Amino acid sequence: MVSRTISSESKITFDKNSVSQNKNVEDLEVEINSYNEENPFSEEGNGVQNRIWFNVFLSFFFMALVLLLFLNKFAMSRDSASTPVLNLDIEGLVLTQSPKLLAMNPLVDKHGAVVTADIWQGQWDLLFFGFTHCPHICPTTLAELNRANDNLPNTIQSQVNVHFVSVDPKRDTPERINTYLDQFNPNFYGLTGDFIDLKIFADNVFVPFLKSPQDVGEPDSNVYNIDHGGQVIVVDPKGRYVGYFQTPIKSNIIEESLPKLIAAYR
Question: What gap in Å lies between CA 241 and CA 233, rounded to an integer?
Answer without folding.
Answer: 7
